[in-house]
Sequence to fold (45 residues):
Amino acid sequence: MKYLSDQMLIEVYHRAVDLQLDAAFIELLRLELNNRNIRIAQASA
Fold:
């Protein structure tokens, strides 16, 4: 994950959510976003 730019990480996160990928993978991305202090607005269902 450290090789991804912040922008790329954000794009990957959004794509993973849109494609409803594995919840564990999305959580891993969320943790990395939090580690980098990047806040993503949660879309309401």
The helical segments are 6-18, 23-35. The domain at 6-35 is CATH 1.10.287 (Helix Hairpins). The radius of gyration is 10 Å.
